[in-house]
Amino acid sequence: MDKIYGYKQKDIVGLAKFLMEKQNCSLSNIFEEYGALNGKAKGTVRNLYYALAKKSIEDKDFCQKHLGGNPIKISKGKEFDEKEERNLIKTILASKTNGNSVRSIIMQMAGGDAKLALRYQNKFRNAVKYKPQLIAQIISEIQGEGKSVSFNLEKKTSPCVISEHQFDKLKFEIDGLVQRISLKIQKENEYLRQRIGVLENENLKLIALLYGSESAGDARKFFKSNTKKQFIN
């Protein structure tokens, strides 16, 4: 089956046709509608769109046939530097003092621009998830300016990030578990050593009973050289 950049050609072509029919719709709505019609996730359709855009630029015949000769141009958003990221987070957290939601604050900052608001939202969420130390620093900074921050970092921190107190508690519990397991193994080993000793003594008694003072040689010699009365019942 023919593929375009790893995706089925029929899906790429189908999306191109759908785009030509929905020229006045936002990309977000197009992704959702096309995904719903074709049983695909919105993120998958977005990836198809990027593949289609690349194909439209590199293959003029394809572009002419499926997009009316108008290649799709995707503008790459400018990356946040550390200062911009910090200012963004601080503005959002400082605005939370008025009881506003993060979403409403971001929309106001973006001036109603949905695409820009999405960039702000993703940057803030990523910072909360992967940079809790930075969030905590900025909260302390805002509090140092005499303002309160109505943002609970603990509830929003990634499950993979734990506080020092939680780490110490977890370490203590693990150490205790290891000690209990070690003690149990020691008791089991001691019991096994005792049982081995008992079995060794019983084995010696059995050898003495079978062979008397002679060394333990071939058992068949014992049974051939002794009478039935000496056999163990």
Any idea what the radius of gyration is? 38 Å
Report the end-to-end length measured between terminal Cα atoms: 81 Å
Q: What's the total helix number?
A: 11
Query: Would you report the number of β strands?
Result: 2
Unreliable stretches (pLDDT < 50, length at least 5) are 157-162
Q: Strand portion, in percent?
A: under 5%
Strand order of the largest sheet: 1-2
Helix content: 55-70%
Mean pLDDT: 78
Which structural class do the helices and strands define? mainly alpha
Shape: flat
| Helix and strand run | EEHHHHHHHHHHH
Q: Summarize the biggest pleated sheet.
A: 2 strands, antiparallel
Structural summary, described in words:
- The chain is mainly α.
- Helix content is 69%, strand content 2%.
- It has 11 helices and 2 strands.
- Strands 1-2 form a two-stranded antiparallel sheet.
- Helix 5 packs across helix 8 (132-144) and helix 6 (102-109) packs across helix 7.
- 10% of the residues are buried.
- The model is unreliable at 157-162 (pLDDT under 50).
For this entry, give a set of tags:
233 residues, mainly alpha, two-stranded antiparallel sheet, 11 helices, 69% helix, 2% strand, flat
